[in-house]
Amino acid sequence: MQTEPRAAAAVHDAPPGSAARARRTVPASVLTALVLGSLVTALLSVQTYRLETEKSNSQFARRAELRIRLFEHSVRRAVEQLQNVNRLFATSRVPISEAQFHEVAGPLLVQQSFIRSFVFHRYVMPAERARFEAAMRDAHPGFTISEVRDGKLQPTSTPGPWLVVQYYEPLPGNESVLGYDAWSNPQLRQATESAIDSGQPRASAPRQSVLSSRQRGVEGKVFAVLMPLYRRGEALDTAAARRQALIGESMAGFHANTFARQVFDHAGLLNTPDTHINIYAAAAPDEAALVMRYGAAPPRAPALAGLLSPAATVSTAKTFDFAGTPWLIVVSRERHGLLADHGSALIVLGAGFALTLLSAAYLRVAAARARLIEATVKMRTAQLQLTSSELQLRNSAIEASANAIFITSAHAPAYCVEYVNPAFTRITGYAAQEIIGQPFGLLDGADVHQPGLAQLRQAMAARRQAHTTVRSYCKDGSMYWNDINVAPVRDDDGQVRHFVHVNYDVTETRRYQEQLEIRANFDPLTGLANRNLLQDRVQQAICYASRLQREVWVAFIDLDRFKFVNDSAGHRYGDALLKMVGERIDAVVRAADTVGRLGGDEFVVVLPQYEVNPMTVAVIEQVLARMAAPFQIEEKEFFVSCSIGISVFPHDGKGSETLLMHADRAMYRAKEMGGNNYQFFSAELNTRSAAQLRIEGALRHALARQELLLHYQPQVDLASGAIVGAEALLRWQHPELGMVMPGDFIGLAEQTGLIVPIGAWVLRSACRQGAAWERAGMGKLRVAVNLSSIQFSQHDIAQTVAEALAESGLDPRCLEIELTEGIVMQNVERTISTLHQLKGLGVQISLDDFGTGYSSLAYLKRFPIDVIKIDQSFVRDIANDPDDALIVISIITLAHKLRLKVIAEGVETAAQLAFLRDNDCDEIQGYYFSKPLPAPAIGAMLAQGKRL
Ligand code: C2E
Ligand code: MG
Ligand code: MG
Questions:
Q1: Cα(422)–Cα(13) distance, rounded to whole angstroms?
Q2: CB atoms inside a 10 Å sphere around CB 173
Q3: Residue of 613, 716, 729 best suited for mutating to test ligand 1, as the one with most atoms within 8 Å of CB
Q4: pLDDT for 36
Q5: CB contact at 8 A, 531 and 596
Q6: What is the Rg, in whole angstroms, of the alpha carbon atoms belonging to the chain?
Q7: Structure confidence at residue 759 (pLDDT)
Q8: Helix, strand, or coil here: 831?
Q9: Residues at Cβ < 5 Å from ligand 3 ion
Q10: Are residues 754 and 740 in contact, defined by beta-carbon separation less than 8 angstroms?
Q11: How far is the CA of 933 from the centre of ligand 1 (A)?
Q12: pLDDT digits (tens, 9 = 90+) for 874-910
């Protein structure tokens, strides 16, 4: 609002005459602008015109060159192909028969459709004529050497020699040509003689075909390529010598136009309407010699040369040799209008003039706006000042930044440090002079294999920006989490010469995150897993169990009188009690089991099945037992019990949610039953566990009640057929259940630890029995005793064995300890030392159930083993499963190589026996010879001297 009157005032304030001066100066500058503009425009247009012409010329030159080269190349190839066929005739030792000729020439005509005929001319001397004609008449009655006279084919009257058409492809319809003397044809004669004398292929001049009368003009032009054929092995260095050696010549008749068209058509060069091709069978563009025309005839006069520009090329021509004849190919293009070819030049012209006018107009306005420009200049200057102070500001910002910022070179792999800011020194402890010039990897310390570092280096090598977090190390070696941002710095020319690294020390944030994670997964009061983590663990256990077809137990534990503790003694005591409960549960379960707290007084234990042996309630009972003990907190003593609900995967659910829910429900049932007990979710499992418990209780008493006994199964030597040993196999004579087999209670005995006293009893009994047999005069029978892994891992196992031996008086060599592969492979170093202790006692060691584990015989070489027992599962099918047969054979062979004795277990049939005998097995054991029997029965067998 204010500006207008002031501007008006400015005009009025101007000294008189200044307006007139302005009017005078404006036309002068405008005029200069007009003249200069027009000049520049003209020059630019001419230059553009020139460039356009050059460009279009070179484009055309390329197109023309392509066509010319293609045609030349095709001509050469066609001639070469024909030469190859001719060579075939030349290399044949015997004269080519008519049938052979057609065999070669027929396919050639089919393949190369531009070849209209393929002919063989035989060179016949006058002396040979009669014999030649007679021979030809065999296949072609009436055959005579002929020539054209009075427009008709007639027997020749020319004295020889002749070049006679002997073979012609395609023959049908052309039979009359046979016998024709090619030399009598003036058009062929010259080319033929040149071919014979030079030894090179020669083309005849094209002519109008007489045979294809339908095709006239260019379409009907034909010509022949002739190739001489000489007798093998003759000298061919002079023309005379060549004539002397002449046998004949082959001739290919070409459709000139078809040939040329095909060449371009196959290359896809016939569909370019602005490029014309003319081919002449002559050195000059003579219409009479034209063999192919695509598009228009070539322009006659050279293109009009522009005054300002180089002439636009409109045609390119090249003469080349077609089998001795000069041919000409002319490639030309249409002349386009000025607009089409020189659009850009015209645009430049138009735009130039328009710009000139505009600038003139602008200049006029410009004078009036001088003041405005002045103001703008001032403003710009101010802005520039601002930019430079901004730069300074930026520098000091880097210096003042709390984050470590440093610059490195872009030279891989060191990327040496070039600058560091004070924060860098503060964070890392490296002073600028210590780190400048050092590789930036110095910060990684020895921790160089971090994925983040690899990522960083990759990005730097690719000149990319990167962001990652890694562990970095201060000068004093302390670690900090480093959040790194790296960006390439480009020069004006776009080259990356440096990298800027901005590092944030995020150690604190990390720590906080970890805390959060802990809080997200763990119960803060007890430090046990929370619901989150529990569900995760259940899910993991399910995955593992479903793969191995095992079980997962989820036990839901709830304290029975916790509310009372909380209410009567207060939360402090309640919390302390919960902590202790957690600790007690944790102490009972296996290390790999998960204990968690869901909140309040609810705890959960996840128990995956780790072994093949079935899970038992032993752990659950222990939890109950531990809870029953009083809790002492400060001066107070609390008595709590718990109720436990158990759900079993896959029986009671397939997902963690369901399993937890079902365990919860089972826990309520346990509460309903008065607490301090456990319940399975499914009734069936409840009974199973009850039965198991009963058996467990009974097993505890079995030893004391002398319900355990041993049966013995004879081991027979295959060579002698005699009983050489017996394996002691445990039986349990249960008062109600009857005879219980080891498979049904060994697992339980192992889980409850009862296997240790039971196993020791087995050892003692077996040794005693062995000694008794010896005393009874049955000879030195070997007694084999099975050892469980639990026994084997007892520290005093060697001592237990030694005691059994001493007590019984059995010769240690008569005791064989059977171990399974699983036991042996458990803790290799310890196994080897235990085995050596046992070997030290003088006992034998055998590897039971061999083949069911994963150990290889070669590996077992490290163990002091004497006998390998091939597992029944391989023996069962040896007679009909070739795979098992092969496995057994290789076990025997390898074992023998390692000087081990081999016993085959579970031999039930004569066929199995025969196979084992044939394959050098040492001993067998199985129902075929005898089932495991009570000791007296074996004694009787020995007394009778029973043999295989
Ligand atoms: P094992 O040591 O491989 O014993 C061979 C098992 O194969 C015995 O089963 C035996 O009765 C059976 N057997 C023998 N010949 C044949 C046959 O021709 N056909 C078939 N189908 N089976 C045959 P048993 O007595 O039921 O013993 C089973 C497993 O229990 C034993 O396998 C052994 O691993 C374990 N065991 C037995 N007694 C004891 C022991 O005192 N202590 C320990 N720790 N384990 C024992
Ligand atoms: Mg055994
Ligand atoms: Mg076995």
A1: 61
A2: 8
A3: 729
A4: 85
A5: yes
A6: 55
A7: 95
A8: helix
A9: 848-849, 905
A10: no
A11: 12
A12: 999 898 888 888 889 989 998 998 899 999 999 999 9
